[in-house]
Amino acid sequence: MEARKPGFKPCVGLVLGSGLDCLVDAMDDGTVIPYTDLPGFFTPTVAGHDGALWLGQLGGVAVACLAGRVHAYEGTGAGAMNGAVRALRHAGCEYLLLTNAAGSLNPDAGPGSLMLITDHINFTGANPLMGETGDTFVDMTNAYDSGLRDGLQRAAEALDIALTEGVYIWFTGPSFETPAEIRASMTLGADLVGMSTVPEVIVARQCGLRVAAISMITNLAAGLDITPITHEQTLNVAAAAAHDMQKLLVGFLEEFFEDAVLGHTGQEPISRRRL
User: Fold this and answer.
1) Using 50, 70 and 90 to split pLDDT, how confident is the model at 266?
2) CA 25 → CA 16, 22, 30, 100, 136, distances in Å?
3) Is 127 annotated in the active site?
4) Of 27, 35, 64, 71, which one is the catalytic site residue?
5) Which of 78, 81, 195, 216 is catalytic?
6) Residue tagged active-site, from 35, 73, 144, 168
7) How far apart are the first and last CA of the chain?
8) DSSP states of 55-68 as a string?
9) 105: how many CB neighbours lie within 10 A of its CB?
10) CATH architecture group of domain 12-129+139-264
11) Are 194 and 100 in contact (CB under 8 A)?
């Protein structure tokens, strides 16, 4: 990263989910690096994931943006994003904002809405730290940082964007879940379902990154609606709702980030410390 954008020190990492690569258009002074040029990065094979790292300013904050992620079901396993997340930390990021497309288990939170993840359930039996040595016993008690969540809620309120909250359950995919699996997920306390994000959160917490994650609801989960679930539907709804996601993320970084996270520390605002 240093060689491609000398002197640039990102403090916030951003991961874009299915259909959200358009958010890089909101960046200023952007520099793009294909994943193929970065050691330890796998290239996505799924539509809606470009596979490039963008370095630039978003909402006045220095951001390293992963436009597209690799999923465990693409054949690279649960640790597919380990190298990318660790590279963000190595580059100087202290915070990680994750986005994804997800199915809702709550009919009141339908397609096109945004949901802030408060916790997750790993339903896959896999973990990105399996087989590694060192500090693999990671505390996940406050995996989704309460300070970041409070700031995002305040930003959403100021922007008049509805932002519900819920527990995310991770299935490996690539097939969508069955109605029986969705009923089981609801019994376990899940509010939304998807095929990503959890591995990145685990590795981020191992690295010491503070994490927040927002899901864009693209469909009601299997058995809750008669509409067939397809990846094309996911991309179409994500594209239609991307405007709210962009407004929320930019507004959060621009107006609320330093108050929500650093206001009590007496440190300089994050945008001035890092740019």
Assistant:
1) very low
2) 12, 6, 9, 18, 37
3) no
4) 71
5) 195
6) 73
7) 15
8) EEEETTEEEEEEES
9) 24
10) 3-Layer(aba) Sandwich (3.40)
11) yes
Give the CA count within 13 Å in the CB-facing half-sphere of 18: 24
Structure tokens at 107: 């009919």
Active-site residue 101, yes or no?
yes
185 is catalytic: no
Distance CA 243, CA 36 (A): 29
Please name which of 127, 125, 102 lies closest in space to residue 115, comparing C-alpha atoms.
Answer: 102
Whether residue 268 is predicted with pLDDT greater than 70 in this model: the reply is no
Active site residue 140: no
* Whether residue 2 lies in the annotated active site: no
**C-beta separation of 58 from 93 below 8 A:** no
Amino acid identity, position 79: G
Considering 1, 62, 72, 101, which one is annotated as catalytic?
A: 101
Indicate the SS3 state at residue 141. Answer: coil
Name the catalytic one among 49, 80, 82, 200: 49
Active site residue 67: no
Exactly one of 104, 196, 215, 271 is catalytic; which is it?
A: 196
Q: What is the DSSP string of 132-172?
A: --SS-----TT-S-HHHHHHHHHHHHHTT--EEEEEEEE--
SS3 151: helix
Catalytic residue among 216, 219, 221, 241: 219
Quickly state the pLDDT bin for 272 (edges 50, 70, 90). Answer: very low
Q: What is the CA radius of gyration of the chain?
A: 17
CB 69 within 8 Å of CB 81? yes
Active site includes 231? yes
Q: Based on the residue annotation, tell me whether 196 is a catalytic residue of this protein.
A: yes
Beta 12-16 vs 95-104: how paired, if at all? parallel
Q: Which two tokens stand for residue 105?
A: 């288990």
pLDDT per position as a tens digit, 225-240: 877 788 787 777 777 7
